[in-house]
Design brief:
Endonuclease, Chain A; alpha/beta
């Protein structure tokens, strides 16, 4: 008898649940000696459909799941119901699904991962990181990056960005580590009042034991190491590998190959060495906020 999945311990939201369930189905298939092609035949689909299921990239149909479990010799009713229950949880819509009329598919995937991450590490050379932005700063920054948006779409973008920040206020929030260029913090996006409000908020954020914020001094910026911002996400579940998000102008890359993750992790480590120690960040932010324009 195989180990039945536990919804209570799997956790992590629908995106991560799909990945967990897909990984467990892959192990069952391999243990049973069944090829992807044969598994595809069992559910009247292709080998590539099985690959997508095992990677957690598609929702689960109960009929397909039942057929696969039977093929993999999982016949105990309680065990099968545990898998089916996990599939129903994995098929649930995330809170961001109501924004699908304008939200890119890749970003919906990333949001599902971000909501479930145990550790988030980000490098940002241009702005205050999304998860640390005040409402007024977020509105000004989004207007700069999406100048052709209607007011309605802009406000929906602002609301979504602020909703993402709910993870920072959970009872058990993820551990977050942000590396920000000093030039980004000096840029008075939204005007001086908005900018100073944002700096004051960052000072408050630094008091959280779950947040590490480091600043890269202007003379030691990170552009020599990387061409732009990126984030690395890590998860509590062993079945879910780290991912790297590399934002781009019209689309973004979500990377999960070990070599890619290692490369970005090495850059993050080097950036942290170049950055000012996090204990000095509040003092640096306070000094920035008192500077006058030359």
């Amino acid at each position: 008898m195989t180990e039945a999945p536990s919804i209570a311990t799997a956790g992590g939201g629908p995106t991560v649940l799909r990945i967990i369930l897909g990984a467990r189905l892959r192990r069952l298939r391999e243990t049973s000696g069944v090829s992807r092609e044969d598994a595809g035949d069992a559910i009247r689909a292709s080998e590539s459909k099985i690959s997508r299921i095992e990677l957690g990239r598609v929702p689960f149909r109960v009929r397909d799941l039942s057929d696969l479990l039977a093929l993999y010799n999982v016949t105990d009713p309680e065990e099968m119901e545990a898998f089916i229950g996990l599939a129903r949880e994995a098929n649930a819509a995330g809170w961001w699904q109501c924004e699908n009329d304008w939200l890119p598919k890749w970003f919906g995937t990333y949001l599902g991962m971000e909501q479930a991450a145990q550790l988030i590490r980000s490098y940002e050379p241009r702005y205050v990181p999304d998860l640390l932005q005040t409402e007024r700063y977020a509105r000004a920054a989004l207007r700069l990056t999406h100048p052709n948006d209607s007011d309605e779409i802009l406000e929906r973008r602002v609301a979504l960005r602020l909703r993402r920040q709910d993870i920072m206020r959970r009872r058990e929030p993820p551990t977050t580590w942000f590396l920000v260029e000093e030039t980004a913090l000096r840029c008075r996006i939204g005007g001086t009042d908005v900018w100073r409000e944002q700096l004051a908020y960052l000072i408050d954020v630094c008091e959280s034991a779950k947040v590490t914020l480091q600043v890269l001094p202007e003379q030691l910026g990170g552009f020599a190491m990387t061409s732009g911002p990126f984030s690395i996400l890590r998860f509590a579940e062993a079945e879910v590998s780290d991912i790297v998000l590399v934002p781009q102008l019209t689309a973004s890359a979500i990377l999960d190959r070990r070599a890619e993750i290692d490369a970005y992790s090495a850059v993050m480590a080097r950036l942290s060495v170049n950055a000012t120690p996090f204990e000095k960040t509040p003092r640096m932010l306070a000094a920035l906020g008192t500077e006058q324009r030359g």
